[in-house]
User: Which sequence fits this backbone?
């Protein structure tokens, strides 16, 4: 098993394998998105209090879930690269940061749009909102720190340490509505409960899985490009470049 992981983690093997895997993420993303939009906009009912404005939830909640999920992936990948010096792990961490920042920004913007009719304001310094904003700053700080060094190894080490330290914010975001008085509603989905209409729950699941497949597509595409830059002096990259020229 470890030998298979090492083989897959080889930059050259990953570059060619990822190209074959991308369609397996792309097509489910398209299918889940189309079905999810149908379920969210047509099948699921309006909320008895919020009316049709509740439909913002079908983007806001999955985007917020993804912002946490991607940060954990980024920090874990950075830790693996830091400890075991696996190049691919560092690449995964680096290319995950802008994707995670985009999902975090999307969660904040949709939350503001949703909050305006519900709370009467675009923004409040609520514990959940503030900790999610801090998460966006952590993503931006990671990217800035990674770009501050000319040496990729040094950049990966410094940014990985920052990402690992920033993990402390993840449970704060998740439990903020329980630890402090919050305008933000508590979780409607738990391990043993689902306190929402079944069609709402299905729509949320469909969009959240669509976002995960989108993340898979983006990370594979961006990782391939990042590997070409980092390994530009290696023989296999030169062979890829020559192959591309011949195809043109």
Assistant:
């Amino acid at each position: 098993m470890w030998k298979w992981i090492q083989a897959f983690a080889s930059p050259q093997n990953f570059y060619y394998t990822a190209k074959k895997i991308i369609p397996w993420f792309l097509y489910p993303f398209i299918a889940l998105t189309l079905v999810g939009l149908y379920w969210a906009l047509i099948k699921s009912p309006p909320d008895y209090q919020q009316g049709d404005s509740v439909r913002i939830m079908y983007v806001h909640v999955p985007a917020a879930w993804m912002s946490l999920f991607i940060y954990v992936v980024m920090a874990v990948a950075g830790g693996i690269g830091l400890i075991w010096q696996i190049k691919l792990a560092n690449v995964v961490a680096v290319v995950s940061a802008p994707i995670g920042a985009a999902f975090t920004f999307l969660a904040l913007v949709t939350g503001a749009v949703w909050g305006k009719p519900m709370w009467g304001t675009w923004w409040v310094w609520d514990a959940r909102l503030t900790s999610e904003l801090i998460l966006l700053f952590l993503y931006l700080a990671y990217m800035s720190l990674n770009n501050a060094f000319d040496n990729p190894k040094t950049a990966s080490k410094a940014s990985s340490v920052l990402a690992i330290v920033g993990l402390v914010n993840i449970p704060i975001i998740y439990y903020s509505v329980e630890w402090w008085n919050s305008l933000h509603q508590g979780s409607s989905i738990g391990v043993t409960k689902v306190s929402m209409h079944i069609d709402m729950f299905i729509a949320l699941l469909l969009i959240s899985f669509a976002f995960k497949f989108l993340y898979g597509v983006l990370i594979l595409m961006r990782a391939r490009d990042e590997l070409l830059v980092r390994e530009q002096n290696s023989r296999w990259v030169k062979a890829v470049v020559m192959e591309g020229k011949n195809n043109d």
Summary: The CA atoms of residues 74 and 93 lie 4 Å apart. The radius of gyration is 20 Å. The chain is about 80% helix and 0% strand. The longest helix spans residues 11-43.
